[in-house]
Amino acid sequence: MNPQALVIDDEPDILELLTMTLSGMSIDCVAAENLAQAEQALQQQDFDFCLTDMRLPDGNGLDFVKELQQQRPDLPVAVITAHGNMDLAVQALKSGAFDFVSKPVKLRILKDLVATALKLSPEKTDNKDRRSRARLLGETDVMKSLRGKIAKLARSQAPVYISGESGTGKELVARLIHDLGVRADKPFVPINCGAIPIDLVESEFFGHKKGAFTGAISDKDGLFQAAHGGTLFLDEVADLPLMMQVKLLRAIQEKAIRPVGGHEELTVDVRILCATHKNLAESVKKGTFREDLFYRLNVIELAVPPLRERKTDIAILAEHILQVLANKNGIESPIFGADAMTALQQYQFPGNVRELENILERALTWIDGEEISAEDLMLPEVVVAQVESVEIQAVLPEENGLDSHLEDQERQLITQALESTRWNKTAAAKKLGITFRALRYKLKKLDLE
């Protein structure tokens, strides 16, 4: 049996074009010129896909999308918007629309959209939760909520802005959204926007033609072409130069790119996910990030919690990470001593899960025996001292308190490491036994930048 589609538009010529295009894809169409006819059709049969104009004679397409989300959450609905009316498209995506297409409708884009939508199946939520729980560990309420949101976002094509501190697992979340969705069999292409030289950023994103600039000895595809049909994950998107932000915005809105030195635009079918440890809203206020791009990327925000806000998950994470590391090194996994687990649960983890991984990898290297102790973790001395005895508080100046004293010691240790490495941050981070990003976080926190 062919897939069934409901197509709604009050302009006869457009309605005919849409139904003919879908029929050419072996899709049976029911045409409706208004919402009344659409609602009648929905009562009479089930559909696999719905395409609706936003402005209809007897109602608003946006309200129709919201209603369908409530009544038929498994039915993917795409909207048709007037050219340039991105605000309405964003509203529709926020309301639960699967995707959008702009007038005048480009048939290649429409066909890609429909083909992607028809891959959706009403997979049970508990099945997706099992698949995500196996990779995104944690049984705290915040993690259960995060996994539920990921499963829902996997059924959409809306851009997602993944916020969170460094080391929380933002790329893992992006990969899960991709892997649980209809694009799972296509490429997932991650890129660190801050790691691309400014003079090469446009070529990296859009590709270039032979002779476009010095060194362009042949044609080269960019990241958008590499991710065609799949997902492009823009990590540290706040680091993109303003010039590139303008071109990225156009590529997202038009679903088309132009390689450097090229004369023709290329249609691209890519879902955009992005992340940054910075506050994008603050970057907009400072003028370092375009407001229009912010609203285009931030259709849906997904916050990944820091490890210190889900401390009861530390034991689960630590056991899993240690087992993975032991398997990787071909050795028997040691056990955690009570003092070691207490130390981990009391530590604040400014570098989050990534820092936990580094701490355990270091402990596995230095451990002498079958049990990891607090000393093997090589956490800052004050943390181990807290575990061994709370009497440390008695020797601290009463007016400063424990937090202030800890920060002073941390500041002193970091300064010494930086001075001994001539302020080479990478070397200093290695000397301190923390990640570069964790050091960067601490420098900012302690006003040492």
Question: What do these coordinates show?
Answer:
There is one protein chain. By secondary structure, the chain is α/β, with parallel strands linked by helices. Helix content is 47%, strand content 13%. It has a five-stranded parallel sheet with strand order 2-1-3-6-7, sandwiched between helices. Helix 4 links the parallel strand 6 and strand 7. Helix 6 crosses helix 7 and helix 19 crosses helix 20 (425-432). The N and C termini lie far apart (64 Å).
Count of runs of 4 or more consecutive helical residues: 21
Strand proportion: 5-15%
Name the overall outline: globular
**Gyration radius, rounded:** 26 Å
Give a short account of the largest sheet. Answer: 5 strands, parallel
Mean pLDDT: 87
What portion of residues is helical? 40-55%
Q: Which strand order spans the largest sheet, edge to edge or round the barrel?
A: 2-1-3-6-7
Structural class: alpha/beta
What is the β-strand count? 16
Segments where pLDDT lies below 50 for 5+ residues? 382-400
